[in-house]
Design brief:
single chain, about 110 residues, mainly alpha, 3 helices, about 65% helix, about 0% strand, elongated
Length: about 110
């Protein structure tokens, strides 16, 4: 494989560990009895149905982790100063914006206690 060296493989493994952490957070949220927060250092709002809310957040985290790992695949095939890194960088930016929109406009809006 062109461009696949030890550095590429180690970088991809680290990338996969980060993606796996998001998947772990999703599994943790699925079984959690308290509402799982999405935003760092933000006060959690009152939730109308904790179980359904946590399941929705869990699905979002797991999907984010899987897509994040998939977006890291170009790291395996990069040569020095390759433009393929743009696929990963732009992909993660788009994925993050979509995840924030899904949470804010979908999950939070649906499960915030009125």
């Amino acid at each position: 494989m062109p461009g696949t060296g030890n550095g590429n493989i180690i970088g991809f493994i680290i990338w996969c560990v980060v993606g796996a952490a998001f998947i772990f957070f999703g599994v943790y949220a699925w079984f959690s009895k308290k509402p799982m927060g999405f935003w760092a250092n933000a006060k959690m709002f009152e939730v109308s149905d904790v179980k359904k809310y946590n399941r929705a957040v869990a699905k979002l985290f797991v999907a984010f982790g899987i897509v994040l790992i998939a977006l890291g695949i170009p790291l395996l095939y990069m040569e020095k100063n390759s433009a393929y890194i743009l696929l990963t960088v732009v992909g993660v930016m788009i994925e993050s914006v979509i995840a924030m929109a899904v949470y804010s406009l979908g999950i939070e809006k649906k499960y915030r206690k009125k």
